[in-house]
Amino acid sequence: MDDVQKLLNRYRNKGIVIDTNILLLLIVGTANRKRISQFKRTQQFLPEDYDLLIKLINLFPKIIITPNILTEVNSLTNQIGEPERSKCFAIFAQLISEIEEIALSSQEIVKNNGFIKFGLTDCGILELSQNQYLVLTDDFKLFNYLQKLGIDSINFNYLRVYLWQ
Known about the structure:
By secondary structure, this protein is of the alpha/beta class. About 60% of the residues lie in helices and about 10% in strands.
């Protein structure tokens, strides 16, 4: 946890990039905490994970998202049944108005060496975050790749496990 605290302190005034599943947890949890464990795309999380996420993102002055992340979250949110779907989209719209969206050219992203293995969204996160922002993800494969490249990131699952102990 000391390493995590150092990362939080280092990026506290810069911002944090939140990956797709974590952003989806934020939206679904805000709409209905009980739905977190029931929705296919967030069922690996608990309501307490949502609480942890809220505490974590409140440490940062801004949340950074790419259009690719927003598109993925939009598609996944569409899988939620009504009436929560509409509530989630209202929360999503509010969130979009409050975050910093940074667009990178897809033509530039595909030049990344990891594109074939990781795709557009993950490589966009990689390109955007280098020496600028902390990345918060639950994607173990992406997290390991970011670590290998020396890009500061936190695996949300590690925080969850630590707090459960």
